[in-house]
Amino acid sequence: MTSLSLIRSFWVVVKGDITCFILEFHGKGKLSKSINCTFIVLIPKVDSPQRLNDFRSILLVGGMYKKVGRNPR
Predict the structure, then answer these.
(1) If exposure means fewest CB atoms within 10 Å of the residue's CB, which of 11, 44, 69, 73 is most exposed?
(2) What is the pTM of this model?
(3) Dihedral sign from CA coordinates of 38, 60, 21, 28
(4) Which segment of 34-38, 40-44, 64-68 scores lowest on mean pLDDT?
């Protein structure tokens, strides 16, 4: 699933936050410091993981900076 399809799937939940973020950027011309945040999530690859090798790491990189450059519709 791509990040865009994930946003579409949960649009009802994230609509307000994303809209506020984009409108604030276009109104003030500033990006929030949190725009550069990256989270590392460990997803278990096996039942009852015991070692670090039993997990797959996933980087959740903020993608909002890609959205602010587009014209609001």
Answers:
(1) 73
(2) 0.42
(3) positive
(4) 64-68
